[in-house]
Design brief:
398 residues, 12 helices, 22% strand, alpha/beta, five-stranded antiparallel sheet, six-stranded parallel sheet
C-alpha cells in the first residue's frame, strides 16, 4: 500500500470512498509478495497491482463489489486446470487477497493509517482477515507509542485479543515485518489450523532504518556490507576525502566527506530510535565531538571501536566535556560482541550481532544454554502491550 499511498491520501482527503485489495498470503511461484496492493475508487479509477496482471480484472471487480456492499472479503486465486481461461495464476502459485472498503471518516484506524503512511510516519496496520464475522475487517493502526481503532463490535473476550494484536503489531513494526498472526480470542498465539482463532494481517510501513558509519577504514567496508544485509540504509562519513570515496565503499547508500560531528548535527531530523551509529575512527579529534552529541540523542545504538586503553582514555575525555555517567553508559565500547574476531569480516559480524542483540533484547548466550523464549522482543511486547515493546530501541530513547 505504501507504493500507492499518495493516491490513497488524495482520495481520502477528497472524501472519496475506495477499496483496497491486499495480498495477505502467497505460496508457490506467486508473482507478488504479501503487502502488494491494488486500490479502486468509487469512480472506477485503479492504482497499484496484486499480481502483475494475472488476476487484476477479477480483483478490480471484487473492489467494486466491496465499495457497493461495504463488506470486506478474503479471496483465494490459484491455477485452474479445468479451464485455461478461468481466473487464476498461470504461474501455478496461489494468492490470498483481502479486499477492504474504506469510507473516509468512518474508521479511526484506517483514517489514521492512511495519514501516517502518506506522511512517512512508521505505522503498522493490523487487520482481521479471518475469524468471527463481527471481527472481519476490524483494524488497528499501531505506532511506536500509540494506537488507533478497536476490534469492535466484539465479545468481551476480545479485550485480551486487542492487547495482543497491538503488542504483536508493535513488535513487527519495530522489525519492519509484514505478515500473518494467528491468535485465540483470548489473545494467545495459536496454530492457524486450530478452531475458534482470529487471523490478523499486519502491514508495517517504515522507512529503512539508518546505519551511520563514521571512519572510512578497511573495517568500515565490511560493516557497510553487513549493515545492508540487515536492511539498513547505510551512510559512511569521514572528514578525509582521500578515504571517503565511492570506489572504496560501493555498497554504501551514501558516502559523505565531512567532519563526523558536523554531519550528525545536520541529520537530527532524519534519525530516530532505530538509527545505529558505528564510530570506527578511534581518533579522539573525530570521536569525542561526535560521541558528545551522539550519546545525548535518542538513537538505538552507539558503538565505538578501539582498544581497552583507547576506551579508558575515551571515557575520561567524555567526562571532561560534561557527559553524565548515564549518558556514557549508553556507549558500547569496544564495539561488538566477544567472538574472537580478527578480520574485518569477522569484526563486522561481531558488531552486527551486538546491534541485533541490543535491539531485540537478546542475552548474547548460545540458544542451547537456555530454555526460555527465543524471540525476546515478541515475548516482552506481550507482557507490556500498552507501551513500546521492551526490545524496541524507542523505549530506551524515551
Amino acid at each position: 500500500m505504501q507504493d500507492i499511498a499518495e493516491q490513497l491520501q488524495a482520495w481520502h482527503a477528497a472524501g472519496r470512498s475506495f477499496a483496497v485489495a491486499t495480498v495477505v498470503g502467497v505460496s508457490g511461484s506467486a508473482p507478488r509478495d504479501p503487502g502488494a496492493a491494488l486500490a479502486v475508487d468509487a469512480a472506477g479509477e485503479a492504482v497499484g497491482s496484486v499480481s502483475g496482471g494475472c488476476v487484476e480484472g477479477a480483483v478490480y471487480e471484487l473492489c467494486q463489489a466491496a465499495i457497493e456492499s461495504g463488506e470486506p472479503v478474503l479471496e483465494r486465486f490459484g491455477y485452474s486446470d479445468e479451464d485455461a481461461f478461468a481466473v487464476g495464476l498461470t504461474c501455478g502459485g496461489i494468492l490470498d487477497v483481502f479486499v477492504q472498503p474504506v469510507v473516509p471518516g468512518t474508521d479511526p484506524a484506517l483514517d489514521a493509517g492512511v495519514t501516517y503512511i502518506a506522511s512517512g510516519t512508521p505505522v503498522a496496520l493490523a487487520r482481521v482477515i479471518a475469524g468471527p464475522g463481527g471481527l472481519l475487517g476490524a483494524t488497528v493502526a499501531v505506532t511506536a507509542d500509540t494506537h488507533h481503532g478497536a476490534l469492535s463490535p466484539a465479545p468481551t473476550t476480545v479485550a485480551g485479543l486487542e492487547r495482543a494484536v497491538v503488542a504483536e503489531a508493535r513488535a513487527m513494526l519495530d522489525a519492519g515485518r509484514t505478515g500473518r498472526v494467528v491468535l485465540g480470542l483470548d489473545g494467545r498465539p495459536c496454530d492457524e489450523h486450530e478452531q475458534g482463532t482470529v487471523t490478523v494481517f499486519v502491514e508495517s510501513y517504515v522507512p529503512a532504518p539508518r546505519m551511520l558509519v563514521f571512519g572510512a577504514i578497511d573495517f568500515a567496508a565490511a560493516v557497510v556490507r553487513i549493515g545492508k544485509f540487515l536492511g539498513y540504509r547505510v551512510t559512511v562519513c569521514d572528514a578525509r576525502p582521500v578515504f571517503a570515496t565511492r570506489k572504496r565503499f560501493p555498497d554504501a547508500d551514501e558516502v559523505v566527506v565531512d567532519w563526523p560531528h558536523r554531519y550528525l548535527d545536520a541529520q537530527l531530523e532524519r534519525i530516530d530510535g532505530r538509527t545505529v551509529l558505528c564510530v570506527l575512527t578511534h581518533d579522539a579529534k573525530f570521536d569525542i565531538p561526535l560521541l558528545e552529541r551522539a550519546l545525548r540523542l535518542p538513537v538505538g545504538y552507539v558503538g565505538a571501536m578501539g582498544s581497552r586503553r583507547t576506551h579508558r582514555d575515551r571515557l575520561d575525555r567524555l567526562r571532561e566535556v560534561g557527559l553524565t555517567e548515564a549518558e556514557i553508559g549508553r556507549l558500547r565500547s569496544p564495539i561488538g560482541l566477544d567472538l574472537g574476531a580478527r578480520t574485518p569480516e569477522e569484526t563486522a559480524v561481531s558488531v552486527a550481532a551486538e546491534i541485533v542483540a541490543h535491539r531485540r533484547g537478546g542475552s548474547c548466550l548460545p540458544l542451547s544454554a537456555g530454555d526460555g523464549p527465543i524471540h525476546h522482543d515478541v515475548a516482552r511486547a506481550a507482557e507490556a502491550p500498552d507501551g513500546p515493546a521492551a526490545g524496541d530501541p524507542r523505549a530506551h530513547a524515551a
